[in-house]
Write a structure and sequence with these properties.
Number of strands: 0
Strand content: under 5%
Radius of gyration: 18 Å
Number of helices: 13
Structural class: mainly alpha
Low-confidence stretches: 145-153
Oligomer: single chain
Mean pLDDT: 82
Number of domains: 1
Order of helices and strands: HHHHHHHHHHHHH
Largest sheet: none
Distance between the termini: 17 Å
Helix content: over 70%
């Protein structure tokens, strides 16, 4: 019972931290010419020493792979390099309110992969939940094009955003399934640190080749925007990865990712509190998608 409570709180808090970070990251990408890859690198560099320090502060000692070195490398490449970068690029094109609504697809995709790879059950409620989630996302994403863009331009941006979001969903789902295997006998914060230590040098090389190098990073670390990026990296990346690992470790992978997928709800609440315009279509889509996630969670709890 205690493990389930800790895992539930960790997963929900993870969703809230990622909502806060997503709003800041979206602003950073729209206000500068920085690429999603550069932002992904910057936030990971900021988060790594914080989590590394946490391992010693809380007495966990030097991070070890616990015999899962290969799986850790794969989950780093899939979940941090590919998924995070694709997610950031998608919210830049779709907007944060629509972009985060694709997050609820991750639990269904993860549950399907867990069914195939881990042998976890997949019932009728899970299938219905997946359909309902997809329906909510379609409702939310199919919003009228902005008046500042031509119809063709808006359509191209939207298609690109959905393609990137699909890459995010698939790579994140694969990472979640691998992560469950690793976390069965490893310390959650160790896993978070090691994943970042693997991902940072890979992203640094990629940013040097395709992300504009140091010139692409500088706009993200200057002035007030730079300070906000630091906050978002600490909240969403450092603590978010740790909390997500704790949730995945203490709950069935389907339930953990389901709770973490409530990010759209937190995002809309924060956006409304900031005075942003929240469309009725976005609210309806979020409610329907989260209801679908709820059906998946119910399926996970009754099997």
């Amino acid at each position: 019972m205690a493990d389930a409570l800790v895992g539930t709180l960790a997963s929900l808090t993870c969703a809230a931290t990622w909502a806060i970070a997503s709003l800041i990251f979206a602003a950073a990408l729209t206000r500068t010419s920085a690429s999603a890859l550069s932002l992904s690198l910057v936030k990971s560099i900021i988060a790594t020493p914080v989590l590394l320090a946490a391992t010693f502060v809380f007495g966990y000692g030097l991070p070890t792979a616990a015999g899962h070195g290969g799986a850790l490398v794969l989950t780093s490449v899939l979940g941090l390099v590919a998924a995070d970068t694709a997610y950031l690029a998608s919210i830049k094109r779709l907007g944060v309110q629509r972009g985060v609504l694709l997050i609820p697809l991750v639990p269904s995709s993860t549950a399907l992969l867990a069914f195939i790879v881990l042998g976890e059950s997949l019932g009728v409620l899970a299938l219905l939940g997946g359909v309902l989630t997809l329906t909510g996302i379609v409702v939310a994403v199919r919003q009228p094009a902005a008046t500042t863009r031509s119809a063709a331009e808006s359509s191209a941006v939207g298609v690109t955003g959905v393609v990137l979001a699909t890459v995010y969903v698939l790579t994140q789902a694969a990472s979640n399934v691998l992560l469950k295997q690793v976390l069965d006998d490893a310390v959650a914060v160790h896993v978070a640190v090691l994943r970042l230590l693997v991902a940072v040098p890979i992203m640094a090389v990629m940013a040097g080749l395709w992300g504009g190098g140091a010139a692409g990073i500088m706009p993200l670390v200057r002035g007030q925007l730079g300070r906000l990026v630091v906050v978002a990296a600490l909240v969403g990346t450092a603590f978010g990865i740790w909390l997500g690992s704790v949730g995945t470790q203490r709950l069935p992978v389907g339930i953990a990712t389901t709770l973490a997928a409530t990010t759209p709800v937190f995002t809309l609440l924060i956006a409304r509190m900031r005075g942003d315009v929240v469309t009725g279509r976005a609210v309806l889509g979020a409610v329907v998608a989260v209801c679908g996630v709820g059906l998946l969670a119910l399926d996970r709890m009754t099997t």
